[in-house]
Design goal:
Shape: globular
Largest sheet: 6 strands, mixed
Structural class: alpha/beta
Amino acid sequence: MLKGIPQILSPELLKVLCEMGHSDRLIIADGNFPAESMGKNAIVVRCDGHGVPEILEAILKLFPLDSYVEHPVNLMEVMPGDPVETPIWDTYKNIISKYDERGEKAVGNIERFAFYAQAKEAYLIIATSEKALYANIMLQKGVIAD
Protein backbone atom coordinates (compact mmCIF):
# COMPACT_ATOMS: atom_id res chain seq x y z
CA MET A 1 0.00 0.00 0.00
CA LEU A 2 1.07 3.55 -0.70
CA LYS A 3 -0.19 6.76 0.86
CA GLY A 4 -2.05 9.25 -1.29
CA ILE A 5 -2.67 6.86 -4.20
CA PRO A 6 -6.35 6.30 -5.02
CA GLN A 7 -7.14 2.65 -4.25
CA ILE A 8 -9.02 2.25 -7.53
CA LEU A 9 -5.71 2.54 -9.43
CA SER A 10 -4.17 -0.91 -9.66
CA PRO A 11 -0.40 -1.43 -9.57
CA GLU A 12 -0.54 -2.33 -13.27
CA LEU A 13 -2.35 0.91 -14.14
CA LEU A 14 -0.01 3.02 -11.97
CA LYS A 15 3.00 1.51 -13.73
CA VAL A 16 1.64 2.34 -17.18
CA LEU A 17 0.65 5.88 -16.17
CA CYS A 18 4.19 6.41 -14.89
CA GLU A 19 5.71 5.08 -18.12
CA MET A 20 3.71 7.51 -20.26
CA GLY A 21 5.50 10.63 -21.45
CA HIS A 22 4.52 14.12 -22.54
CA SER A 23 1.83 14.10 -25.26
CA ASP A 24 1.08 10.37 -24.88
CA ARG A 25 -2.66 9.73 -24.88
CA LEU A 26 -4.91 7.41 -22.96
CA ILE A 27 -8.53 6.45 -23.43
CA ILE A 28 -10.88 5.71 -20.58
CA ALA A 29 -13.42 3.61 -22.43
CA ASP A 30 -17.03 2.82 -21.71
CA GLY A 31 -18.30 -0.75 -21.66
CA ASN A 32 -19.26 -0.67 -25.35
CA PHE A 33 -15.88 0.54 -26.63
CA PRO A 34 -13.91 -2.08 -28.60
CA ALA A 35 -10.88 -1.75 -26.30
CA GLU A 36 -9.10 -4.91 -27.36
CA SER A 37 -9.44 -4.40 -31.12
CA MET A 38 -8.63 -0.67 -30.90
CA GLY A 39 -5.77 -1.39 -28.52
CA LYS A 40 -3.74 -3.77 -30.66
CA ASN A 41 -0.85 -1.27 -30.52
CA ALA A 42 -1.67 0.01 -27.03
CA ILE A 43 -1.55 -1.30 -23.53
CA VAL A 44 -5.06 -2.32 -22.45
CA VAL A 45 -5.82 -2.33 -18.73
CA ARG A 46 -9.17 -3.62 -17.53
CA CYS A 47 -11.00 -1.83 -14.72
CA ASP A 48 -14.12 -3.96 -14.75
CA GLY A 49 -16.76 -3.05 -12.22
CA HIS A 50 -15.86 0.64 -12.33
CA GLY A 51 -17.30 3.59 -14.23
CA VAL A 52 -15.45 6.23 -16.19
CA PRO A 53 -16.00 9.14 -13.74
CA GLU A 54 -14.36 7.37 -10.80
CA ILE A 55 -11.38 6.30 -12.92
CA LEU A 56 -11.07 9.81 -14.40
CA GLU A 57 -11.09 11.38 -10.94
CA ALA A 58 -8.41 9.02 -9.64
CA ILE A 59 -6.16 9.49 -12.68
CA LEU A 60 -6.37 13.28 -12.66
CA LYS A 61 -5.09 13.32 -9.07
CA LEU A 62 -1.78 12.08 -10.50
CA PHE A 63 -1.80 12.86 -14.23
CA PRO A 64 -1.00 16.34 -15.60
CA LEU A 65 -2.98 17.39 -18.66
CA ASP A 66 -1.01 18.78 -21.60
CA SER A 67 -0.78 22.57 -21.36
CA TYR A 68 0.60 22.92 -24.90
CA VAL A 69 -2.59 21.90 -26.71
CA GLU A 70 -5.99 23.57 -26.71
CA HIS A 71 -7.90 20.40 -25.85
CA PRO A 72 -5.91 17.87 -23.82
CA VAL A 73 -9.23 16.14 -23.14
CA ASN A 74 -11.48 14.94 -25.94
CA LEU A 75 -14.88 13.28 -26.00
CA MET A 76 -16.38 11.13 -28.74
CA GLU A 77 -19.06 13.19 -30.54
CA VAL A 78 -22.56 11.78 -30.79
CA MET A 79 -23.34 10.63 -34.31
CA PRO A 80 -25.80 12.96 -36.11
CA GLY A 81 -29.32 11.64 -35.71
CA ASP A 82 -28.40 9.40 -32.78
CA PRO A 83 -30.96 10.25 -30.04
CA VAL A 84 -28.50 9.99 -27.17
CA GLU A 85 -28.15 12.40 -24.26
CA THR A 86 -24.72 12.78 -22.65
CA PRO A 87 -25.16 14.08 -19.09
CA ILE A 88 -21.99 12.19 -18.13
CA TRP A 89 -20.02 14.84 -20.05
CA ASP A 90 -21.05 17.43 -17.43
CA THR A 91 -19.71 15.11 -14.75
CA TYR A 92 -16.40 14.89 -16.63
CA LYS A 93 -16.17 18.67 -16.96
CA ASN A 94 -16.78 19.10 -13.23
CA ILE A 95 -14.02 16.60 -12.43
CA ILE A 96 -11.60 18.19 -14.92
CA SER A 97 -12.28 21.63 -13.44
CA LYS A 98 -10.95 20.40 -10.08
CA TYR A 99 -7.58 19.46 -11.59
CA ASP A 100 -6.99 21.87 -14.49
CA GLU A 101 -7.41 25.62 -14.33
CA ARG A 102 -8.82 25.70 -17.89
CA GLY A 103 -11.84 23.77 -16.67
CA GLU A 104 -14.26 22.78 -19.41
CA LYS A 105 -12.27 24.83 -21.95
CA ALA A 106 -9.74 21.99 -21.87
CA VAL A 107 -12.38 19.67 -23.32
CA GLY A 108 -12.97 19.20 -27.04
CA ASN A 109 -15.00 16.81 -29.17
CA ILE A 110 -13.83 14.43 -31.88
CA GLU A 111 -16.05 12.84 -34.50
CA ARG A 112 -16.68 9.16 -33.69
CA PHE A 113 -14.54 7.56 -36.42
CA ALA A 114 -11.74 10.10 -35.95
CA PHE A 115 -11.83 9.25 -32.24
CA TYR A 116 -11.44 5.56 -33.13
CA ALA A 117 -8.51 6.40 -35.40
CA GLN A 118 -6.79 8.33 -32.61
CA ALA A 119 -7.57 5.55 -30.12
CA LYS A 120 -5.61 3.15 -32.31
CA GLU A 121 -2.57 5.40 -31.69
CA ALA A 122 -3.12 5.73 -27.93
CA TYR A 123 -0.50 4.51 -25.47
CA LEU A 124 -3.12 3.14 -23.07
CA ILE A 125 -6.76 2.11 -23.19
CA ILE A 126 -8.55 1.59 -19.90
CA ALA A 127 -11.60 -0.64 -20.31
CA THR A 128 -14.38 0.07 -17.78
CA SER A 129 -17.90 -1.20 -17.16
CA GLU A 130 -19.41 2.25 -17.79
CA LYS A 131 -22.94 1.89 -19.15
CA ALA A 132 -23.48 5.48 -20.34
CA LEU A 133 -23.35 5.85 -24.11
CA TYR A 134 -20.70 8.06 -25.70
CA ALA A 135 -18.84 8.01 -22.40
CA ASN A 136 -15.37 7.53 -23.89
CA ILE A 137 -12.79 10.15 -22.97
CA MET A 138 -9.26 10.74 -24.24
CA LEU A 139 -6.58 12.44 -22.13
CA GLN A 140 -3.24 13.79 -23.36
CA LYS A 141 -0.45 13.80 -20.79
CA GLY A 142 1.40 16.97 -19.95
CA VAL A 143 4.54 17.72 -17.99
CA ILE A 144 5.26 18.36 -14.35
CA ALA A 145 7.38 21.48 -14.09
CA ASP A 146 8.23 21.27 -10.37
